Amino acid sequence: MANDNLSSTEQFVWKFIQDNLELVPFLSIVELSERANVSTATIIRALRKKGFTGFSDFKHGVAKNNSSKDFTNLERADSDIKSAILKNEHEVTNTIKMINIPDIEQSVQRIKHAKTIYIFARGFSELIAKELLVKLQLLNKNCQLSDDPNIIRTLSADIRPGNLVIIISLNGETPELIEAAKKTSKNKIPIILITTNADSTIGKYSTIELCGFKSETTYFPAFEVHSRLPLQVISRVLLDSYVIRTQK
C-alpha cells in the first residue's frame, strides 16, 4: 500500500494490530493505544501509511472482511449438517451482541468486593457453574457451588450481606432457584443471573441479569437438554473481564 515507510514504532503497532485482528473491531482507538502502549497519533500515522483514512476506516474493513469469510469447510457438508453448525454460530454471535458492557463492569465489581460467592445451578447448567467455580477459586476468590435442591433452599436463607449469589439458569424458571432468589433478595444480597430468558421469574429478584440468545432449534425435542452455549459465552466474557480489571 501507499506510503509503506513505517518507523520502528509504527511497525510495532502495525504488527500488534495484525496479531490482534479479532479483538481490534471491539476496541476504541484509546483502548488500542493503551493495550499497545503507543499514542493514538502513532496508530493513525501507521494506518494512513498502510492506505487507510483512519482508525474507523480500518475497523470497518476488518469487520467487513471477517463477515465475508466463506465457510469453505462446510461446502462438503449436506444442508442438515450445515444447519447444525451454523446454529451454534448464530447462538454465539447473537449472545455477544446482547451483552451489556455496563452490566459486565458492574458484575466484575460485585465479584471483586464479595466476601464469599455462592453459585447455584441445576441440570446441565451445573457444568458451566463448576467451571466458573474453579476459575474464580484460581483467582483467589472464596466461592462455593450448590447444585442440590435441598441445600440450595436451605443455604440461600442463611447468606448474609457482604456476599454475592450467582445463579446460572437457562430459562430462569427452576423452582428451587426461584425460591433461592426470593430468599437472598429479601435479605438484600446482590444476585447475578446468567440466563437466556429476559423475562424469567428469577430475573425479577436479580440485581444484574446477563442474558444470552437461545436458539429454538433442538435436536433432542423429547428432553430438556437445550444447548448451554450462550451461558458458556457469558461466563467466559465475565471471567475474562474480571481478570482484565483486577490485573489493572
UniProtKB/TrEMBL annotation:
UniProt keywords, alphabetically: DNA-binding, Transcription, Transcription regulation
GO molecular function: carbohydrate derivative binding; DNA binding; DNA-binding transcription factor activity
UniProt cross-references to InterPro entries, sorted A to Z: Homeodomain-like_sf, HTH_RpiR, RpiR-like, RpiR-like_SIS, SIS_dom, SIS_dom_sf, WH-like_DNA-bd_sf
Top-level taxon of origin: Bacteria
SUPFAM superfamilies: Homeodomain-like, SIS domain
Domain SIS positions: 107-248
Keyword Chloroplast: no
Biological process according to GO: carbohydrate derivative metabolic process
Stored CDD domains: SIS_RpiR (cd05013)
Domain spans labelled HTH rpiR-type: 1-69
UniProt-recorded name of the protein: Transcriptional regulator
Organism, as annotated: Pediococcus pentosaceus (strain ATCC 25745 / CCUG 21536 / LMG 10740 / 183-1w)
